[in-house]
Amino acid sequence: MAVSRLFEILYYLVDHKQTTAKELAEYFEVSVRTIYRDLDRLLVAGIPINTVQGNNGGISIDENFVVEKAVFNPQEQKQILTAIQTIEHLQGTNQNALVTKLTAMFDQEQRDWIEVDFSTWHKANNLNHKFYLLKEAVFNNRIVEFNYVNSYGENSKRKVLPNKLFFKSNTWYLQGYCLIKTDYRIFKLTRINDLVLTSDVFNEKIKFPPVITSYDNHFMMKKVKLKFNKNLGNVVFDEFNKDEILLDQAGNYIVETDVFDNYWLISFILSFGSQIEIIEPIDLKEKLLDEIEKIKKIYK
Fold this sequence. Notes:
HTH deoR-type domain-containing protein; 3 domains; SH3 type barrels; PafC-like; single chain; transcription; WH_DNA-bd_sf
């Protein structure tokens, strides 16, 4: 739900006195169905909205209704402004006018406290555009199509009804109902290519989405014990929890943790070269040595 849109609808009704669901849908660039859902939420919140059928009917707000800052205590006022500013940065939309209005009404100092940049340090990418298209799909029940590269490097065409975007371990993911696999799937946004927001609207009933517990849940977990060089403290604390980290007498970092047993683990260890050592398990050492032999053959 777009919190900012609810406030904008409220101000629109106060300013225009009477309107229609179609006019609101066109103004906010959403479906009529979405507008009615927003109006229901405003009614539940106690906003006196009236709807009248007929040629001269429409949607209006009680003429005696006034938006007063006294409705919200100072802490709630800050939370509202914070929520809208967060939405602005995450959705890539401009809510400055709304933030300014509410800031003045609440008599609060406007603080630009958050900034979200989807590009990486070493290159620019199109995550902002993907985020915008997927947000539109989620709020309007639109189907998206894209090419996806899975964990094995395999490319496939997907047709998906997006359910939600979520941020986990420094990466954005999409949970959606795949119409090809006829089940929910999780997709890493950086592996989504050629994303298209179709005009197809999906209104059929599907099962409730599962709780997101893991991205790579088709891989087994493996307990590992690794030793990182003492110069890699920044990496260790970025990747692992504090209670998984110990220091040895030489100041090196000993990490004991559970990780997914897939190729990521080998590539992660290889990325540190001689600055990391596998203490346990033995089979992981053997896998690493096999991979090193393959690499050596390439450069012979």
